[in-house]
Design brief:
By secondary structure, the chain is α+β, with helices and mostly antiparallel strands. The protein has helices spanning 2-7, 22-33, 60-68, 81-85, 92-119, 122-143, 149-180, 186-204, 216-244, 248-277, and strands at residues 9-17, 42-45, 50-56, 73-76. It has ten helices and four strands, in the order H-E-H-E-E-H-E-H-H-H-H-H-H-H.
Length: 279
């Protein structure tokens, strides 16, 4: 009888720390599935940062070891107080460091967006959107620590819609530039792209003291690396614009960055709706 009970599937939830987008969620799901469980037995929400397992209790240790290799943090959610209150173990200094990251990302995102208008660069606008998105996701993680799953999903849904509107705005503007064809200011593009790269590095510095003790650090480095690739792409596009006196390099980078960002926005909305339906 005991073996039958332990082999019966149960639903277990984990709060995931350090994830940022649907790509991270898919990585965690693949790690869990590597243990041999069915694809529908694991669901990771990019909206609320919750992993749900529907498996036999005896499989949990193996799955936990598998997902731990991704480098993210996993805290099992209890059935009562912790589900409502979340994990609130971050110390004040760490929270202040995260606030610095939020301010730098959102602040420079706004500045870079203005720079995109002055330079006539769609790539700068798309990169600015990426900055703002990263900052807002970190902000949501900070303010929603003590919220219930329902309110985390609702706030993520609003955020996903807002970022989606911004993304479609950049895409629409880029399509318009594709036909009107004005060459952006390559010098301004390069300057803002280089500053963006510096801001990405500076945003990580406040978190360096916590890199050994906090699972979020691995994700922070991954996000900074991905953002740096976007910044380098903007700088390279600026060089190609200067060499060929053509707006095409700028537009290609803009389409790439905005497209990827819209994909993340759609994933956040989908996951948020799924979480709301399941509560």
């Amino acid at each position: 009888m005991a073996d039958a009970q332990t082999s019966k599937p149960i639903s277990v939830r984990y709060r995931v720390s350090g994830m940022d987008c649907s790509k991270d969620a898919a990585q965690i799901e693949r790690a869990a599935q590597s243990t041999g469980i069915a694809p529908d037995a694991v669901k990771v929400s990019a909206a609320t940062h919750i992993m749900t397992l529907n498996v036999a209790e005896t499989l949990l240790p193996e799955i936990e070891r598998a997902v731990a290799t991704t480098g993210y943090g996993f805290d099992r959610i209890g059935e009562d107080a912790e589900l409502q209150g979340g994990v609130a173990h971050q110390d004040p200094a760490y929270r202040r460091a995260l606030w610095i990251v939020v301010i730098l990302n959102v602040g420079y995102g706004g500045i870079e967006m203005l720079g995109g208008f002055f330079a006539g660069s769609q790539a700068l606008k798309a990169d600015a959107l990426d900055f703002i998105g990263d900052g807002l996701i970190t902000f949501l993680g900070l303010v929603a620590i003590g919220w219930s799953l329902v309110w985390r999903a609702r706030s993520a849904l609003v955020q996903g819609v807002f970022l989606g509107v911004l993304g479609f705005g950049v895409l629409g503007s880029t399509f318009w530039r594709l036909f009107t064809g004005s060459v952006p200011d390559a010098d301004l593009m390069g300057v803002f792209g280089l500053i963006a790269l510096i801001v990405n590095v500076v945003a990580v510095l406040p978190l360096l003291p916590y890199r050994k003790g906090d699972a979020n650090m691995r994700a922070v480095w991954m996000f900074s690396r991905n953002d740096a690739i976007g910044n380098v792409a903007v700088v390279l596009a600026a060089g190609l614009v200067a060499v060929f006196s053509s707006p095409l390099p700028d537009l290609i980078v803009a389409f790439g960055i905005a497209g990827l960002f819209l994909h993340s926005s759609i994933s956040i909305i989908r996951d948020a709706r799924t979480d709301l339906q399941g509560t």
